[in-house]
């Protein structure tokens, strides 16, 4: 099998974790005799510094000529107070490739049950999937601007029926492959967009009689997620709610640094990235947890290349490393041995 992958390290800890991902890919290449080639391109702050554009044309072209994209993270204090921002590069690439379906699995590794600040009984055995709409809602609504000489501001929340239907279907399809329970999260007590969302979930639900559906308001969902995470199987929700709930859900698993994601379009072309950001507070220190990034490589193998067993091997290797008591600094552990980003990566590779 021959595949070409564009690597987008980005900013902050991005380059450190993408280097980890590349190392894992190279090992899979050798061990399984695949031909994965890759090239690095700029996105985010580093691209602004070099070209003034957070998503240069050259990066888009390279991604268009690839079979998949792996992204580290973008953003940082250096670019926080300017009109051209690194995050615009990420939003643009999601829109350009129509990556509307963001899958964010939240699965706790047994060894990390005591890494969560939540009680062990609560987090033990948690396993849920957040299906987040990624190319609509407040992130992309127009107008979005300051008005009246800065005396007022507007951001717009818009969705078309088609945009809601396609993500809701992914939610149901995902539930069919799991425990057949779908929680649709909205704010239908306040927002018209949520009322339409709820109607569409009920309509499409008729095509999936085996799936049980719950509608939960986002504020209550935020509470339930950390008081009873095991009551969730698949969550389907709009862009901003999914963003917030997924960082919250990472608390169940011990650290934001361990959660991967896949952002897919209708043709299953995908961009894979950990859910966390550029972690400016630890950038360059070799402290970044590479697990979310490495599990994102696993998701790429599974969703883009249909290499399910290789993807499972990556998860097993991570599981074994953690079971043997190795951690990174972000994971609370009483007796674990704390490894750097590259030491953790090498340990995972040694278990592959
Ligand atoms: P963040 O996710 O970067 O960091 C939050 C906290 O989690 C920090 O304390 C950080 O050190 C820690 N953390 C995150 N990932 C870690 C890892 N792999 N290992 C160990 N610790 C980790 O969120 P933030 O500080 O709010 O945002 C920083 C920048 O990142 C902002 O510019 C934001 O826009 C951007 N961001 C980018 C992405 C992305 O590229 N997909 C995602 C989220 C935030
Ligand atoms: C994420 C990030 C992004 C988002 C930002 C950086 C635009 O928080 O991927 O979760 O909000 O989607
Ligand atoms: Mn986020």
From TrEMBL:
EC number(s) on file: 1.1.1.85
Location of this chain's protein in the cell: Cytoplasm
Residues reported in the UniProt entry to bind Mg(2+): 219, 243, 247
Protein name per its UniProtKB record: 3-isopropylmalate dehydrogenase
Binding-site list for substrate: 94, 104, 132, 219
Alphabetized UniProt keyword annotations: Amino-acid biosynthesis, Branched-chain amino acid biosynthesis, Cytoplasm, Leucine biosynthesis, Magnesium, Manganese, Metal-binding, NAD, Oxidoreductase
Gene Ontology MF, one: magnesium ion binding
Broad class of enzyme this protein falls into: oxidoreductase
Family: Belongs to the isocitrate and isopropylmalate dehydrogenases family. LeuB type 1 subfamily.
GO cellular component: cytosol
Stored HAMAP family: LeuB_type1 (MF_01033)
Note accompanying the cofactor annotation: Binds 1 Mg(2+) or Mn(2+) ion per subunit.
């Amino acid at each position: 099998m021959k595949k070409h992958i564009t690597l987008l390290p980005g900013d902050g800890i991005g380059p450190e974790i993408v280097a980890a991902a590349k190392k894992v890919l190279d090992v899979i290449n050798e061990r399984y005799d695949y031909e994965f080639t890759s090239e690095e391109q700029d996105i985010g702050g580093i691209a602004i510094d070099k070209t003034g554009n957070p998503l240069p044309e050259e990066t888009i072209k390279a991604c268009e000529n690839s079979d998949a994209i792996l992204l580290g993270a973008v953003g940082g204090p250096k670019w926080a107070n300017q009109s051209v921002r690194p995050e615009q590069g990420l939003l643009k690439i999601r829109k350009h490739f129509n990556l509307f379906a963001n899958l964010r699995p939240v699965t706790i590794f047994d060894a990390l049950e005591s890494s969560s600040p939540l009680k062990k009984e609560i987090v033990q055995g948690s396993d849920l999937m957040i299906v987040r709409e990624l190319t609509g809602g407040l992130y992309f609504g127009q107008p979005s601007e300051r008005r009246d000489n800065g005396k007022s501001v507007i951001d717009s929340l818009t969705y078309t029926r088609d945009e809601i239907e396609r993500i809701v279907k992914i939610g149901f399809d995902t539930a069919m492959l799991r425990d057949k329970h779908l929680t649709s999260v909205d704010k239908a007590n306040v927002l018209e967009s949520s009322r339409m969302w709820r109607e569409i979930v009920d309509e499409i639900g008729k095509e999936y009689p085996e799936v049980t559906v719950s509608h939960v308001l986002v504020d209550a969902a935020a509470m339930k997620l950390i008081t009873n995470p095991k009551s969730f199987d698949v969550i389907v929700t709009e862009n901003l709610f999914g963003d917030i709930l997924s960082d919250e859900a990472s608390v169940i698993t011990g650290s934001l640094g361990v959660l991967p994601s896949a952002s897919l379009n209708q043709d299953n072309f995908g961009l894979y990235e950990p859910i966390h950001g550029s972690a400016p507070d630890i950038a360059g220190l070799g402290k970044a947890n590479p697990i979310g990034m490495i599990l994102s490589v696993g998701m790429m193998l599974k969703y883009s290349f249909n290499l399910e067993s290789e993807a499972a091997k990556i998860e097993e290797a991570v599981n074994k490393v953690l079971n043997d008591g190795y951690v990174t600094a972000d994971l609370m552990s009483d007796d674990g041995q704390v490894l750097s980003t590259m030491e953790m990566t090498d340990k995972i590779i040694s278990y592959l």
